Amino acid sequence: MNLEIIKTEKNDVELKIDNLTIAEILRIYLNEQEIDLAVWRREHPFKPLIMKIQSSNVKKSVSDAVSTIKKDLDKIASIAKKK
Fold this sequence. Notes:
Elements: E1 3-8, E2 12-17, H1 20-32, E3 37-41, E4 49-54, H2 58-82
Antiparallel strand pairs: 1-2, 2-4, 3-4
Helix pairs in contact: 1-2
């Protein structure tokens, strides 16, 4: 997976991501935090998508979302190992 920061400002970040699944999971978790905006768009199926995130503290919002995703994936992995 490739991720590139295209634009970064105090309350706004744009990322170029080549993995739709990762972008969608991140978007869902960010929107659960009630941030201002978390969307992605893809100009063409063969091009990477662009994700735009707006929040009063973008860095903390993304960090919190990634931490929550990791915790949830660890829970799923431990359940799968038990079965």
